[in-house]
Amino acid sequence: MNPIDAGTAINCPSCKQSIPARVEQLLDVGADPAIKERLLSGKVNMVECPLCSFRGMAAAPLVYHDPEKELLLTYTPVELNLPLPEKERVLGALTRAVLGRIAAENRKGYLLQPKEMLSMEGLINAVLAGEGVTPEMIEQQRNKTKLLQQLAAAAKAELPALIKENDEQIDALFLQLLAALRTQSEGDKDSSVLPELGKLEQLLLQHSTFGQETRQQAEALQTAAAELGALGEGLTREKFVQLITAARDDHHVTSLVTLARPAADYQFFILLTEQIEKSTDEERKRLENIRTLVLETVQKIDTVAEERAKVAAGVLQDLLQAEDLPAAVKEHLPSIDETLLMLMQHNIEAARKEKNERAVSRLEELRAAIMQTLHESAPPEIRFVNELLALETDEEAEQMIKRRTAELNAETLSAMKSAAEELRAGSRPELADKLDRYRAVAEKEITAAKWR
């Protein structure tokens, strides 16, 4: 932890009583890449008063630093009413802490001219602008947030008409905002909001154009995963042709290909073409359309895979040539994905076959640095999920949940739910079911803890 960011006592903004809090004042993305996401998701300096139940952001002077974007921002809440000398003293200490982390030869001009933000909203907008988020995009999100609030407050009978009236605004971003609101409400089991948000989501999936499309895609993906899972190791090209030709719609076809891309190879297309040639005129047209759709889907998947492979190869070379490996891994962390890890493993195996011990040693060193950094940088809730899944028995998992109940919150439950959905979509239902069981245990422990 940064020595300036420390556990302290503050006056509750609502009841003015002294309460414990962890207040972060130096938000340095260079030292902690995860701080940017925490800031943008509203998790920085959030306090909860045990006396009056207030929940909000603690007022404190802040310095935000992002070396990659060359951003150095300062913010002092007006409500603190700090005299100018005190304000300069605090912000000066924070900016000197930033400079102290950077070698003199690497310091750039922006570090000498920090930009003062007049509001927290302004600071967040400046961070978003650095990420390429325009004022227009921010305004679009505000409008969607207002619409979400309007729909959440509307009577159920009015919702279908309101949804259709605002159909153009309901898109992926709108459903993400709804999901975020649901996540925030999951931590409060006494809240009456959560069931209403669930009902709203179902109505959006039924009555909006984007929602209907999303629902159809999700249902097709679940159906395809179940069909492929039932075949398991028994999946052959012939059976894959049967699944594809029996698919009920385009979403079903693309879902099957997406989940089983290796099965859609040259031999598959030969078998499919043979079936087309044997079919009647009406059936031939349907099968030809399916063949075209499969081919287009395969090309899209392969194009994305090729681009990812190129990016991964470039990042891997940069990492292998870096003098300071841990620092390089932190710098490239956003680009480290499953494609890069698979490429690295392939290179390790190739180097072993060639008996190139030097290359093997360097690659193993890099892999260890990546695993360590991924573990350290993952949000607490993700680390918790990974640790749970690493345990061998349900008994060990339940003991861990009970032992660490104090760490459980809405984010933890949401992470467990999301991870289970990803595992199920990835044809690993046994792990998904296990995580669902653990989430039920965690929910009980959270509820029980409230009554202690």
What best-fitting shape do the alpha-carbon axes yield? Answer: globular
What would the average pLDDT be, to the nearest integer? 84
Largest sheet: 4 strands, mixed
Integer count of domains? 5
Low-confidence stretches: 1-7
Q: Helical region count?
A: 19
Sheet with most strands: strand arrangement? 3-6-7-8
Rg, Cα atoms, Å: 26 Å
Question: What's the total count of β strands?
Answer: 8
State the helical fraction. 55-70%
Could you give a short description of this structure?
The protein is α/β, with parallel strands linked by helices and 452 residues long.
Structure notes:
- The two termini are 31 Å apart.
- The chain is built from 19 helices and 8 strands.
- The protein folds into 5 domains: 6-133, no CATH class; 136-207; 213-306, no CATH class; 322-377; 380-450, no CATH class.
- A 4-stranded mixed sheet has the order 3-6-7-8, sandwiched between helices. It has a two-stranded antiparallel ribbon with strand order 1-2.
- With 452 residues, it is α/β, with parallel strands linked by helices.
